[in-house]
Automatic annotation (TrEMBL):
NCBIfam families reported in the protein's UniProt record: HEQRo_perm_3TM
Name used for this protein in its record: ABC transporter permease
PROSITE patterns in UniProt: ABC_TM1
TM segment ranges: 35-59, 71-92, 178-201, 207-228
């Protein structure tokens, strides 16, 4: 029979490797705060980024001689550098300048949540600009010619024909941007924002554990990604209903 002293470490390892869900249940309020902060950060950054991206994408697609190069530099800068660095530069970097600390914007820029929101919005706007630009440029030539033949102005054609058609084509790529933004939101925890990952870290530090907080965070992220994916599938099904093959009508008797 094996010695009890030899079995004990193995038993301790097995017990410690088991997920203790009571730790998560006892700290559900912390995870609720993390879920709320994550959802609001992602939703608002996508909203503000989208409002900025649409006009930028139009100028890029129209090849505006002045704005197009500037917009290209902006998108290249924010797509070419990590979101973590952008967040650090805004949260830690701007506070180094006295002119910023003395300005009206300092009450906002000194808060980690708003700094993260600004960084996420600018980053998302850069990616959405390229997504919408590609969708606008892929507008079928026949749709544009038909709009011109109807006597539409360029602004009316953009509003009624090109942009609605572009949004439909951009929807699959935009769904990926939403998921990427959700994954990128974990960076908020590095600047003291209690998001889902931050909630997991808080629970782990509170009980000196390593598994429960991170595993609970992973499950929450998987759940949100599943809901986002299903939501976009239903959205695509609704917007692309006219593209689905229809059964032939039965011949009249």
């Amino acid at each position: 029979m094996a010695d009890a002293a030899q079995i004990s470490p193995i038993q301790d390892f097995i017990v410690s490797a088991i997920f203790d869900y009571t730790v998560v249940v006892d700290n559900y309020e912390t995870f609720l705060i993390g879920i709320w902060n994550t959802i609001t950060l992602v939703a608002l950054s996508l909203l503000f980024g989208g409002l900025l991206a649409v006009p930028l994408a139009v100028f890029r697609a129209e090849r505006h001689p002045i704005f197009s190069p500037l917009i290209w530099c902006y998108t290249y800068l924010f797509r070419g550098t990590p979101l973590l660095i952008q967040t650090f530069l805004i949260y830690y970097g701007l506070g180094q300048f006295e002119v910023i600390r003395d300005s009206f914007a300092w009450p906002v820029l000194r808060e980690a949540y708003w700094c993260a929101l600004i960084a996420f919005s600018l980053n998302s706007a850069a990616y959405q600009t390229e997504i919408f630009r590609g969708a606008i440029e892929a507008t079928p030539f026949g749709e544009v010619e038909a709009a011109k033949a109807s006597g539409m102005s360029r602004l009316t054609m953009m509003r009624r024909i090109i942009l609605p058609s572009a949004f439909r084509r951009a929807l699959p790529a935009y769904s990926n941007e939403v998921i990427f933004m959700l994954h990128g939101s974990v960076i908020a925890s590095t600047v003291t924002v209690v998001d889902i990952l931050g909630a997991g870290r808080t629970v782990n530090a509170k009980y000196y554990i390593y598994l429960e907080g991170f595993l609970a965070a992973a499950i929450l992220y998987l759940t949100l990604v599943f809901l986002i994916s299903r939501g976009f599938k239903l959205w695509e099904k609704h917007w692309h209903a006219h593209l689905r093959p229809r059964s032939a009508a039965s011949p009249a008797e």
